[in-house]
Amino acid sequence: MMKNMCVAHRGFSGKAPENTLAAVRMAMALPFVRWIEIDVQLTRDGVPVVIHDFTLDRTTNGHGKVKEMDYESIRRLDAGSWKGRAFRGERVPSLDEVLALASGRLHLNIELKTSGEMYPGLEKAVIDLVHSAGMRDQVVLTSFDAGALKQSKNLDPGFQTGLIYDSRSGDPAGKLEELDCSLLSISYDRLNPGLVKLLAGRGVKIMAWTVNKAKEMRRLAEMSSDIMICTNRPDIWGDTFLEV
Question: Pick from 99, 93, 101, 106: which is nearest to 50 by CA?
Answer without folding.
Answer: 93
